[in-house]
Amino acid sequence: MRKSFFKPEFLAAAFLMALIFITAVPAAAVSDETTVAGVITKVMPEEGTIEIKAESIWNGETWTGVSVTFVSREFISGTVPDSALYGKIKTGDPVQATFTGDEEYSVNWLCIGKVQSGGSTGKYLSDAFGDPKYVISPFFNNFKITYQMLPDCSRCSGSTCASDYAGLRVSQGWEEKNLITEYTIAMGERHVFTSPDGCESEFSVTLISGKAKAASCPGYPAAEGPVSVNNFVISVVQKGTVSDMTPAPVVTPTETQSTPMPTQTSGFVFAGTLIGIFAAVFARGGRK
After folding, report:
1. Closest Cα partner for 214 from 260, 171, 264?
2. How many CA within 13 A on the CB side of residue 189?
3. Among 54, 106, 191, 265, which residue has the least CB neighbours within 10 Å?
4. CB within 8 Å of 194: residues ≥ 6 apart
5. Contacts for 284 with CB less than 8 Å, ≥ 6 apart
């Protein structure tokens, strides 16, 4: 008589292991970000990197000493978000910068802001390179910027869609004198936000690259995934020194393929394989 090991308790164990694997593997990992304030110690354009000596860290509310944080070293080297910064920064400049990665080795700088004055934790920035959602201090003359990437819903993959435009919202001033301006900028375009009479500064914003959330598209399910890091070049400039720059027209393909909906398959495929292996082993154990 064949003795079978293909029992309910073994199936339950197999399903439990598969379930653990599925829940342990997220749809996509999102890296943590750390924002530091310090000074530029090395500028290496041939390598596409800069090194910053971290003096303070942003804890979500205020700047604190690096010694009481998890930053393991003062000198942090990483890849720059855009090469345009090499013409704007130099060794010794105070900066505020956000990075992701392991500071023990090399990181990716998501945004680097040059501080106008008052040390690295000074109140105002003169320039920023990278993603302005990581900017802590406002810009000189109290310019502040928020944005939303606008998706091309015919070009989506996973949790993001290609984007050719961004909606900008720039404010300047204080309290009831606050001036708010909105503008839709195209990829590669520079737009200059003018300021009221009597103010000698203007706000220049150039959109370099970016992606939008797929969940912004009608009927597209929300999906977990890496946070899209977008790239801008931003500067406070003297009035009249910089003008708008219109990019070449954005060419949209006339024929687009159907966009696959985001799925999480790797965990389920592995789970099915694991269950199959368990079943085969248990069944073979009964063939004596």
Report:
1. 260
2. 18
3. 265
4. 202, 239
5. none
β-pair partners for 231: 209
Identify which of 85, 91, 94, 93 has the alpha carbon closest to the alpha carbon of residue 63: 94
* Phi, psi of 140, deg, nearest 5: -55, 145
Please choose, from the candidates 262, 260, 269, 261, the residue with its C-alpha nearest in 3D space to the C-alpha of residue 25: 269
Phi, psi torsion values for 257, nearest 5 degrees: -80, 155
C-alpha span between 163 and 160 (Å, rounded): 9
d(CA 100, CA 66): 16
Give 75's contacts (C-beta < 8 A, 6+ positions apart). Answer: 41, 51, 52, 53, 54
Candidates 129, 106, 93; CA nearest to 47 is 106
Using pLDDT thresholds of 50, 70 and 90, give the confidence band for residue 15: very low
Q: Locate the domains of the chain by residue range.
A: 1-27+264-288, 29-251
What confidence tens digit (pLDDT) does each residue in 73-119 have? 788 999 999 999 999 999 999 999 999 987 666 799 999 999 998 78
Q: Which tokens in the block code for residue 255?
A: 């024929």
- Is-above-0.70 flag for pTM? yes
- What residues does 33 pair with on adjacent strands? none
φ, ψ (nearest 5 deg) of residue 33? -115, 150
**DSSP E strand boundaries for 188-254:** 190-193, 201-209, 211-213, 231-238
Residue 131 main-chain phi, psi, to 5 deg: -95, 115
